[in-house]
Design brief:
Jelly Rolls; alpha+beta; 8 helices; about 270 residues; 7-stranded antiparallel β-sheet
Length: about 270
Amino acid sequence: MTDVPLADTFQFDAQGFVILRRVLDTSLCSRYLAELERLFECSYEDAWLQRDGVRGQTTIQLSEGQRRINGLPLWTDVFDDLISLPPIVDRLRAWMQHPQLVNTWAIDKTLGTPWGGWHRGLNPDDYSVRQGKVRTRMLNCVLLLTDNGPEDGCLAVVPGAHKSEIDLPMADYRSRELPGTMRVTGEAGDVVMFSETLLHTGTNKTTDGHRTNLYFNYIDATYNPAMRELLAGNQGNINHYVFPPQVRARFNETQRELTQWMEWQRVAPA
């Protein structure tokens, strides 16, 4: 494990996110884009997901101009290395007690994709810092495969809102910016890491071409994603969180460590 620069930890605590520049090179981005396009065109009838009546959530149309696919390692080994990418893993281990991968997905946007809705994965009391040690119970990693300019449907956040417990009337801010909104921009190959207690959304895309990102979402081992989804009435979501044994068998030691919770999780019928 490499020591994380103190400046990164300071920024992550102050703003709720950091941007790592040029983590992926151009050839890797091109390879991942090509594989995603193949996956978007596939049909999915997987025995693991069909077992006991479980239905898989795979390629879905979120809105006009937007495609999403969940559970990436279920369908391909091309993205496996991203689970254990050293610059990301070093920060996960610095800012989480015991990080575990819970969900992976990709979103592709084209011209006309509308705003998403403002949200946070966890509440601010799931974020803390004590004696210089940051702890967030959920941390999302966004890997930019294409340039994300301010009009490309990029991520938008409210820096510092990962600690805010002031409730705004969110209905008043549908499809518009919250006070203090920042559009998080970057080039292909950059990575954005943010606490899921941070208020965030995706902006509308008003430019031509594709904006394509990968998302690897990690939880702390003290947090039970299965119970969270069960209580929320989303039991079917677990089917793209958990990788079957034959998938984890191809993982290296770090990747198995970061998915260890799956050894005890059974997928129940949807």
